[in-house]
Write a structure and sequence with these properties.
This protein is 32% helix and 22% strand. It is α/β, with parallel strands linked by helices.
Length: 341
Protein backbone atom coordinates (compact mmCIF):
# COMPACT_ATOMS: atom_id res chain seq x y z
CA UNK A 1 0.00 0.00 0.00
CA UNK A 2 1.20 3.53 -0.58
CA UNK A 3 0.18 7.11 -0.20
CA UNK A 4 1.68 9.96 -2.14
CA UNK A 5 1.29 13.65 -2.78
CA UNK A 6 -1.53 14.13 -5.23
CA UNK A 7 -2.31 16.22 -8.23
CA UNK A 8 -2.84 19.49 -6.48
CA UNK A 9 -0.15 19.72 -3.81
CA UNK A 10 -1.16 21.23 -0.48
CA UNK A 11 -4.79 22.07 0.21
CA UNK A 12 -5.60 25.74 0.06
CA UNK A 13 -6.84 27.49 3.16
CA UNK A 14 -10.25 27.89 1.54
CA UNK A 15 -11.04 24.20 1.02
CA UNK A 16 -10.57 20.92 2.92
CA UNK A 17 -7.90 18.42 1.97
CA UNK A 18 -8.99 15.95 -0.71
CA UNK A 19 -7.91 12.30 -0.50
CA UNK A 20 -8.26 9.99 -3.51
CA UNK A 21 -8.66 6.28 -2.71
CA UNK A 22 -7.44 5.21 -6.14
CA UNK A 23 -8.36 2.12 -8.16
CA UNK A 24 -9.68 -0.17 -5.40
CA UNK A 25 -9.67 -3.89 -6.04
CA UNK A 26 -13.41 -3.79 -5.33
CA UNK A 27 -15.88 -1.14 -4.25
CA UNK A 28 -19.59 -1.20 -3.41
CA UNK A 29 -20.59 1.77 -5.54
CA UNK A 30 -21.66 2.14 -9.16
CA UNK A 31 -19.41 4.20 -11.40
CA UNK A 32 -16.56 4.28 -8.89
CA UNK A 33 -14.12 1.66 -10.16
CA UNK A 34 -11.48 4.40 -10.24
CA UNK A 35 -12.07 5.10 -6.57
CA UNK A 36 -13.54 7.80 -4.41
CA UNK A 37 -12.40 11.23 -3.31
CA UNK A 38 -12.94 12.05 0.35
CA UNK A 39 -13.01 15.59 1.74
CA UNK A 40 -14.04 16.85 5.17
CA UNK A 41 -15.19 13.39 6.19
CA UNK A 42 -17.51 12.95 3.21
CA UNK A 43 -17.38 11.30 -0.20
CA UNK A 44 -16.84 14.25 -2.50
CA UNK A 45 -16.56 12.43 -5.83
CA UNK A 46 -16.93 9.00 -7.45
CA UNK A 47 -14.19 8.36 -9.99
CA UNK A 48 -15.01 6.10 -12.99
CA UNK A 49 -12.57 3.41 -14.14
CA UNK A 50 -9.55 4.87 -15.95
CA UNK A 51 -10.44 8.45 -15.02
CA UNK A 52 -8.95 10.98 -12.64
CA UNK A 53 -10.77 13.27 -10.20
CA UNK A 54 -12.34 16.33 -11.78
CA UNK A 55 -10.67 18.61 -9.21
CA UNK A 56 -7.15 18.53 -7.75
CA UNK A 57 -6.46 16.20 -4.83
CA UNK A 58 -3.93 16.64 -2.04
CA UNK A 59 -3.15 13.00 -1.40
CA UNK A 60 -3.52 9.74 -3.32
CA UNK A 61 -3.79 6.34 -1.69
CA UNK A 62 -3.12 3.28 -3.85
CA UNK A 63 -6.12 1.07 -3.03
CA UNK A 64 -5.42 -1.54 -5.70
CA UNK A 65 -4.97 -4.25 -3.06
CA UNK A 66 -7.92 -3.14 -0.97
CA UNK A 67 -11.70 -3.39 -0.91
CA UNK A 68 -13.51 -0.13 -0.15
CA UNK A 69 -16.59 -0.65 2.02
CA UNK A 70 -18.90 1.65 3.96
CA UNK A 71 -17.98 1.78 7.64
CA UNK A 72 -19.92 -0.74 9.72
CA UNK A 73 -22.09 0.43 12.63
CA UNK A 74 -22.27 -1.54 15.86
CA UNK A 75 -25.56 -0.52 17.48
CA UNK A 76 -25.17 -2.17 20.91
CA UNK A 77 -22.04 -2.91 22.91
CA UNK A 78 -20.79 -3.04 26.51
CA UNK A 79 -17.17 -1.89 26.39
CA UNK A 80 -16.44 -2.63 30.05
CA UNK A 81 -17.35 -6.30 29.60
CA UNK A 82 -14.17 -6.71 27.55
CA UNK A 83 -12.45 -7.14 30.92
CA UNK A 84 -14.38 -10.30 31.81
CA UNK A 85 -14.15 -12.04 28.46
CA UNK A 86 -14.01 -15.82 28.98
CA UNK A 87 -14.29 -15.47 32.76
CA UNK A 88 -14.79 -18.98 34.19
CA UNK A 89 -17.59 -17.87 36.52
CA UNK A 90 -19.80 -16.91 33.59
CA UNK A 91 -19.15 -19.57 30.99
CA UNK A 92 -22.22 -21.13 29.30
CA UNK A 93 -24.80 -19.54 31.58
CA UNK A 94 -28.19 -18.03 30.81
CA UNK A 95 -28.62 -14.28 31.22
CA UNK A 96 -29.81 -13.98 34.84
CA UNK A 97 -27.20 -16.34 36.37
CA UNK A 98 -24.59 -14.90 34.00
CA UNK A 99 -25.26 -11.40 35.36
CA UNK A 100 -25.35 -12.60 38.96
CA UNK A 101 -21.94 -14.25 38.47
CA UNK A 102 -20.33 -11.11 37.10
CA UNK A 103 -21.93 -8.27 39.08
CA UNK A 104 -19.48 -8.76 42.01
CA UNK A 105 -16.54 -8.48 39.60
CA UNK A 106 -17.95 -5.54 37.66
CA UNK A 107 -18.63 -3.79 40.97
CA UNK A 108 -14.85 -3.33 41.35
CA UNK A 109 -14.57 -1.45 38.05
CA UNK A 110 -12.44 1.71 38.40
CA UNK A 111 -11.47 4.55 36.02
CA UNK A 112 -8.20 2.98 34.89
CA UNK A 113 -9.73 -0.41 34.09
CA UNK A 114 -12.65 1.19 32.24
CA UNK A 115 -10.25 3.26 30.17
CA UNK A 116 -8.33 0.15 29.16
CA UNK A 117 -11.56 -1.71 28.37
CA UNK A 118 -12.93 1.13 26.24
CA UNK A 119 -9.65 1.51 24.36
CA UNK A 120 -9.48 -2.21 23.62
CA UNK A 121 -13.14 -2.49 22.60
CA UNK A 122 -12.94 0.53 20.30
CA UNK A 123 -9.69 -0.68 18.74
CA UNK A 124 -11.20 -4.11 18.05
CA UNK A 125 -14.22 -2.46 16.47
CA UNK A 126 -12.06 -0.28 14.20
CA UNK A 127 -9.96 -3.28 13.18
CA UNK A 128 -13.18 -5.10 12.29
CA UNK A 129 -14.34 -2.29 10.00
CA UNK A 130 -16.66 -0.47 12.41
CA UNK A 131 -16.48 3.30 12.20
CA UNK A 132 -19.47 4.02 14.45
CA UNK A 133 -20.43 2.32 17.71
CA UNK A 134 -23.03 2.64 20.44
CA UNK A 135 -21.99 1.66 23.94
CA UNK A 136 -24.47 0.86 26.71
CA UNK A 137 -22.68 1.67 29.96
CA UNK A 138 -24.92 1.26 33.00
CA UNK A 139 -22.43 0.37 35.75
CA UNK A 140 -21.33 3.21 38.06
CA UNK A 141 -19.74 1.79 41.22
CA UNK A 142 -18.31 4.25 43.72
CA UNK A 143 -15.46 6.26 42.21
CA UNK A 144 -16.61 5.83 38.59
CA UNK A 145 -18.88 8.83 38.21
CA UNK A 146 -16.97 9.96 35.09
CA UNK A 147 -17.35 6.70 33.16
CA UNK A 148 -18.95 8.29 30.09
CA UNK A 149 -16.40 11.13 30.08
CA UNK A 150 -13.65 8.51 29.94
CA UNK A 151 -15.31 6.84 26.96
CA UNK A 152 -15.62 10.20 25.19
CA UNK A 153 -11.88 10.75 25.61
CA UNK A 154 -10.97 7.30 24.30
CA UNK A 155 -13.26 7.59 21.28
CA UNK A 156 -11.75 10.98 20.39
CA UNK A 157 -8.25 9.56 20.78
CA UNK A 158 -9.00 6.79 18.25
CA UNK A 159 -11.15 8.86 15.89
CA UNK A 160 -14.27 6.68 15.97
CA UNK A 161 -17.82 8.06 15.91
CA UNK A 162 -19.84 7.04 18.97
CA UNK A 163 -23.23 7.21 20.59
CA UNK A 164 -22.49 6.78 24.28
CA UNK A 165 -25.48 5.89 26.39
CA UNK A 166 -25.78 7.01 29.98
CA UNK A 167 -27.10 3.73 31.29
CA UNK A 168 -28.54 3.28 34.75
CA UNK A 169 -29.81 0.89 37.39
CA UNK A 170 -31.83 2.02 40.43
CA UNK A 171 -33.69 -1.19 41.33
CA UNK A 172 -31.43 -3.36 43.47
CA UNK A 173 -31.93 -6.86 44.78
CA UNK A 174 -33.35 -5.65 48.10
CA UNK A 175 -36.08 -3.76 46.22
CA UNK A 176 -37.02 -6.64 43.93
CA UNK A 177 -34.50 -6.13 41.13
CA UNK A 178 -31.61 -8.29 39.95
CA UNK A 179 -28.40 -6.26 40.59
CA UNK A 180 -26.74 -6.11 44.03
CA UNK A 181 -27.07 -2.92 46.06
CA UNK A 182 -23.51 -1.67 45.53
CA UNK A 183 -23.82 -1.27 41.74
CA UNK A 184 -27.04 0.78 41.62
CA UNK A 185 -27.61 4.53 42.00
CA UNK A 186 -30.62 6.54 43.09
CA UNK A 187 -32.85 8.06 40.40
CA UNK A 188 -32.02 11.68 41.29
CA UNK A 189 -28.28 11.07 40.87
CA UNK A 190 -28.87 9.32 37.54
CA UNK A 191 -31.11 12.05 36.12
CA UNK A 192 -28.77 14.83 37.25
CA UNK A 193 -25.74 13.16 35.67
CA UNK A 194 -27.72 12.50 32.49
CA UNK A 195 -28.37 16.24 32.16
CA UNK A 196 -24.69 16.99 32.84
CA UNK A 197 -23.53 14.63 30.12
CA UNK A 198 -26.02 15.94 27.58
CA UNK A 199 -24.92 19.52 28.25
CA UNK A 200 -21.23 18.62 28.03
CA UNK A 201 -21.03 16.07 25.22
CA UNK A 202 -24.23 15.75 23.17
CA UNK A 203 -23.58 17.12 19.67
CA UNK A 204 -26.74 17.53 17.60
CA UNK A 205 -24.94 18.55 14.40
CA UNK A 206 -25.16 16.43 11.25
CA UNK A 207 -21.52 15.33 11.40
CA UNK A 208 -21.39 14.76 15.16
CA UNK A 209 -18.65 12.46 16.41
CA UNK A 210 -20.19 12.11 19.89
CA UNK A 211 -23.81 11.89 20.89
CA UNK A 212 -25.32 10.98 24.24
CA UNK A 213 -28.35 8.72 24.61
CA UNK A 214 -30.18 7.77 27.80
CA UNK A 215 -30.37 4.07 28.60
CA UNK A 216 -31.91 2.60 31.76
CA UNK A 217 -30.62 -0.95 31.75
CA UNK A 218 -33.66 -3.24 31.74
CA UNK A 219 -37.10 -3.83 33.29
CA UNK A 220 -35.54 -5.95 36.05
CA UNK A 221 -33.02 -3.32 37.18
CA UNK A 222 -34.85 0.03 36.85
CA UNK A 223 -37.88 1.63 38.53
CA UNK A 224 -40.93 2.92 36.68
CA UNK A 225 -40.15 6.43 37.87
CA UNK A 226 -36.71 6.36 36.26
CA UNK A 227 -38.09 4.98 33.00
CA UNK A 228 -40.74 7.71 32.79
CA UNK A 229 -38.50 10.61 33.79
CA UNK A 230 -35.73 9.44 31.48
CA UNK A 231 -38.17 9.50 28.55
CA UNK A 232 -39.23 13.03 29.51
CA UNK A 233 -35.59 14.12 29.74
CA UNK A 234 -34.80 12.70 26.30
CA UNK A 235 -37.76 14.57 24.85
CA UNK A 236 -36.66 17.83 26.49
CA UNK A 237 -33.06 17.57 25.25
CA UNK A 238 -33.68 15.86 21.89
CA UNK A 239 -31.61 12.72 22.43
CA UNK A 240 -32.19 9.01 21.85
CA UNK A 241 -33.46 6.33 24.25
CA UNK A 242 -32.09 2.81 24.57
CA UNK A 243 -32.66 -0.28 26.74
CA UNK A 244 -32.60 -4.07 26.72
CA UNK A 245 -35.97 -5.63 25.95
CA UNK A 246 -37.32 -8.99 24.83
CA UNK A 247 -34.02 -10.69 25.62
CA UNK A 248 -35.09 -13.74 27.63
CA UNK A 249 -38.10 -15.67 28.85
CA UNK A 250 -36.94 -14.80 32.39
CA UNK A 251 -37.55 -11.15 31.53
CA UNK A 252 -41.07 -11.97 30.33
CA UNK A 253 -41.82 -13.80 33.58
CA UNK A 254 -40.37 -10.95 35.66
CA UNK A 255 -42.52 -8.33 33.90
CA UNK A 256 -45.67 -10.41 34.14
CA UNK A 257 -45.10 -11.04 37.86
CA UNK A 258 -44.00 -7.48 38.69
CA UNK A 259 -45.99 -5.27 36.33
CA UNK A 260 -48.79 -7.58 35.25
CA UNK A 261 -47.93 -7.30 31.55
CA UNK A 262 -45.40 -8.28 28.89
CA UNK A 263 -42.21 -6.20 28.50
CA UNK A 264 -43.40 -4.28 25.43
CA UNK A 265 -46.67 -3.32 27.14
CA UNK A 266 -44.62 -2.09 30.09
CA UNK A 267 -42.48 -0.01 27.74
CA UNK A 268 -45.60 1.57 26.29
CA UNK A 269 -46.92 2.32 29.79
CA UNK A 270 -43.79 4.29 30.72
CA UNK A 271 -43.84 6.36 27.52
CA UNK A 272 -41.03 4.80 25.53
CA UNK A 273 -42.70 3.80 22.28
CA UNK A 274 -41.52 6.30 19.70
CA UNK A 275 -38.91 6.99 17.01
CA UNK A 276 -36.21 8.13 19.43
CA UNK A 277 -36.09 4.62 21.00
CA UNK A 278 -34.02 1.65 19.89
CA UNK A 279 -34.02 -1.66 21.75
CA UNK A 280 -31.33 -4.28 22.23
CA UNK A 281 -32.17 -7.93 21.43
CA UNK A 282 -35.92 -8.09 20.75
CA UNK A 283 -35.77 -11.88 20.68
CA UNK A 284 -39.04 -12.70 22.38
CA UNK A 285 -41.48 -10.42 20.57
CA UNK A 286 -44.62 -11.79 18.98
CA UNK A 287 -45.49 -10.92 15.40
CA UNK A 288 -48.09 -8.44 16.62
CA UNK A 289 -45.51 -6.84 18.93
CA UNK A 290 -43.17 -6.45 15.96
CA UNK A 291 -45.97 -4.69 14.10
CA UNK A 292 -46.56 -2.40 17.07
CA UNK A 293 -42.87 -1.51 17.14
CA UNK A 294 -43.06 -0.76 13.43
CA UNK A 295 -46.10 1.49 13.87
CA UNK A 296 -44.27 3.47 16.54
CA UNK A 297 -41.00 3.51 14.51
CA UNK A 298 -39.00 1.89 17.31
CA UNK A 299 -35.67 0.38 16.24
CA UNK A 300 -34.41 -3.04 17.30
CA UNK A 301 -30.80 -4.24 17.21
CA UNK A 302 -30.37 -8.00 17.14
CA UNK A 303 -27.35 -9.58 18.84
CA UNK A 304 -27.08 -13.04 17.26
CA UNK A 305 -23.76 -13.96 18.90
CA UNK A 306 -24.64 -12.71 22.37
CA UNK A 307 -25.17 -16.04 24.15
CA UNK A 308 -25.42 -19.56 22.72
CA UNK A 309 -29.03 -19.99 23.82
CA UNK A 310 -30.10 -16.74 22.19
CA UNK A 311 -28.94 -17.53 18.66
CA UNK A 312 -31.90 -19.59 17.37
CA UNK A 313 -34.39 -17.21 18.97
CA UNK A 314 -32.54 -14.20 17.58
CA UNK A 315 -32.78 -15.68 14.09
CA UNK A 316 -36.53 -16.12 14.54
CA UNK A 317 -36.74 -12.54 15.78
CA UNK A 318 -34.92 -11.24 12.72
CA UNK A 319 -37.41 -13.13 10.56
CA UNK A 320 -40.30 -11.61 12.52
CA UNK A 321 -38.79 -8.19 11.96
CA UNK A 322 -39.47 -8.48 8.27
CA UNK A 323 -43.16 -8.74 9.13
CA UNK A 324 -43.37 -5.42 10.92
CA UNK A 325 -40.23 -3.65 12.06
CA UNK A 326 -39.15 -0.60 10.11
CA UNK A 327 -35.70 -0.29 11.64
CA UNK A 328 -33.53 -3.31 12.47
CA UNK A 329 -29.78 -3.70 12.84
CA UNK A 330 -27.19 -6.22 14.02
CA UNK A 331 -24.73 -5.77 16.85
CA UNK A 332 -22.20 -7.64 18.95
CA UNK A 333 -23.70 -6.91 22.41
CA UNK A 334 -20.42 -7.67 24.11
CA UNK A 335 -17.08 -9.27 23.33
CA UNK A 336 -17.89 -12.96 22.80
CA UNK A 337 -17.19 -15.39 25.60
CA UNK A 338 -14.03 -16.91 24.20
CA UNK A 339 -12.75 -14.64 21.43
CA UNK A 340 -12.38 -10.96 20.51
CA UNK A 341 -15.28 -9.17 18.84
Amino acid sequence: MSAQAGLGGEASLSRPRRLWLKNPQAILADGADGGVVVAAGRIAELVPAGASPTEPVDETFDASRHVVLPGLINTHHHFYQTLTRAHPAAMDKELFPWLQSLYPIWGRLDPDSLRIAARLALTELLMSGCTTAADHHYLFPQGLDDAIDIEVEEAARLGIRVTLTRGSMDLSRKDGGLPPDHVVQDADTILSDSERLIARHHDRSEDAMVQIALAPCSPFSVTKRLMRETAELADTHDCRLHTHLGETEDENRFCEATFGCRPLDYLEEVGWLGPRTWLAHGIHFTTEECRKLGRHKVGVCHCPSSTPSSRPASARSASSARRGLRSASASTDRPPTTAPT
